């Protein structure tokens, strides 16, 4: 089934390894502003995951708001996947698994 949302939305979330809080909404926009957010993110080396359903849901949140608990698993998977794509692994992975090589 195709998503019928005519206006593109973009939402930026921020999470720093070691944060004690959930990721927060740091940017959001629709239409041309969404395109600008995506372009700036890519230019800055920020990985972009385009999912219209997730974006539409996150766009309902306010700037500075933490993502809701119902999305922890989804966002955690995206963050973990982005780490793998960047060849970065939390030190705790190497310590607990002894199979993951981390860059020094």
From TrEMBL:
SUPFAM superfamilies: EscU C-terminal domain-like (SSF160544). Pfam families: Bac_export_2. The keyword Membrane does not apply. GO terms for biological process: protein secretion. Keywords: Bacterial flagellum protein export, Protein transport, Transport. Transmembrane segments: none annotated. GO terms for cellular component: plasma membrane. The keyword Cytoplasm does not apply. Belongs to the type III secretion exporter family. Required for formation of the rod structure in the basal body of the flagellar apparatus. Together with FliI and FliH, may constitute the export apparatus of flagellin. This is Flagellar biosynthetic protein FlhB. It comes from Aliiglaciecola lipolytica E3. The lineage of its organism: Bacteria, Pseudomonadati, Pseudomonadota, Gammaproteobacteria, Alteromonadales.
